[in-house]
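note to self: the first set is below, dont mix up w the second
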Amino acid sequence: MYHNTLLLLQHYRTILWTLECFPSSVAEELDRPLKDLDTLLDRIDLELGMNNRKLEGRMESVRRSRLLVDRLNDAVSILKSKPVNGNKMYDIIYMTFLGPDKLMHEELLYRLDISARHYYRLRTQAINIIALRLWSAPAGEVDSWLEVLSILENW
């Protein structure tokens, strides 16, 4: 779970870029300029009505990617509610994987004002919490898991 979550986080920026490029790539594929979302949706509905399987497959892929990004964003936002160092964990994950700029390691440590050892410890804990949220625990149980994790960390 940890490695799947780490891999997903490492490719987050690329996934978002791909989703942002989707409307223009569909416009090229349909050989028509699309000026707005309504035009895109109308044209896609028309193509799907004519059984364009390639476009249908791409739409399903985009839907799944968007769902995964939304779930990941939700899982990352849970970090903020974790007592003690939740905000720091969120900042680590955001600056390392999600933010618009990819920072050098030294710049990350400087902005976070922490040591490398502390950074890796908190990053590992944060990724484990995100993995728990994404892959194993139903959404309703995450709050109780966070309480358990907090109790165990303070032991």
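second set (the one i keep forgetting abt)
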Amino acid sequence: MSQFKVGVVGLGQFAPEFMDLFQSHPHVSEVYVCDVVGERAERVRNDFGAQRAFTDFNELLDSDVDAVAIFTQRWMHGQMAIEALKRGKHVYSAVPMAIEVAEIEEILRLVRETGLTYMMGETSYYYPAVVYCRNQWRAGKFGRFVYGEGEYLHDMTDGFYKAFQFSGGENWKATASFPPMLYPTHSISNVLAVTGSYATSVSCLGFVDTVDDGVFDKNVSLWQNDFSNETALFTTADGGIMRINEFRRVGIAPYRPEVRLSLYGTDAAFEQQTDAVVWQTHDGYEDVKAEVTAGRSDAPLKSDPRSRTGVDAALVESFTSGFAPVHDTSVLPRQYAGLHNGHEGSHQFLVNDFVTAVARRELPPVNAWVAARYTVPGIIAHESAKQGGVRLPIPDFGDAPA
């Protein structure tokens, strides 16, 4: 398949970040857009010059589109991916993969049976700190894995109130209470995208929220969730231990960084905290912050989210990063030169890896089996938290087929 058509679904704050990247890729012939808000669909179609606009997902699937890129509400991804795969469409999905293990099992079954491409758009896989550690790991410099920490520290005041209000309407509090461990992939993939292992068991504790804003309130929450923060301790298949923090009430400086990785091996360690990144061995340590810091991206968006009502400017600023020295940009198409990039240099790699995988009939890096290993542990962790921290086994669905 030298060229194919892509339908971008869910045109809120995030999807427009990717429109130029899909349209500019040499393997994409046309881009369609789809949103239940017709005015929004038409605006994005006009802003980016997309070929067709839809207001119904099923109508998009009935069209001649070959693949869909799903950017809808996070609890909708699993069912929409399943429907698209059943209708013969390749799938790119924003995180998380799904919020139920049964949905993930069904996605794996459909991908295996159809041979269609599924990729989860996990930004952390391409974050400079993760790329740096993965390179060091593959070079054998860490030794045996001992312990890793992955954290997604995003306070509600750092853009989340406005983001949920924008997407959730007048009943936004019911969904703003989304359980933190059901959105686990930014933090879990920090560690597992380096070692390539998977989680085997978990004990998780939840922090019961007491802020009087009506968000993390069991009586309001669609998930009867009152945990604003969750901390999980996992065992991993390679004999190590992994601690994961998913925090929505935390007093730290925003975006400095909000996703953090520390990883310890028998021979070396990597530590990332606010304004500090260190690589160390038995012989000493060195500051590697410059290697894993993405520069500013000055490329403009055709449709700037900051111009839209209810969109937080600081949240948008967190998307507008360029590349870090550790990124290998030689794999990207020349058509991407000068285009907008975001989330610590991940966006261009995300789209390119998906489009290339579809065109070449190859497995993308974060394929369905890898995505399951980044998502399922969080689902089980939240169940553990609801049971007061009881240790639970984590099902694993194996490696991707050759």
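remember for set 2: The chain has a mean pLDDT of 94.
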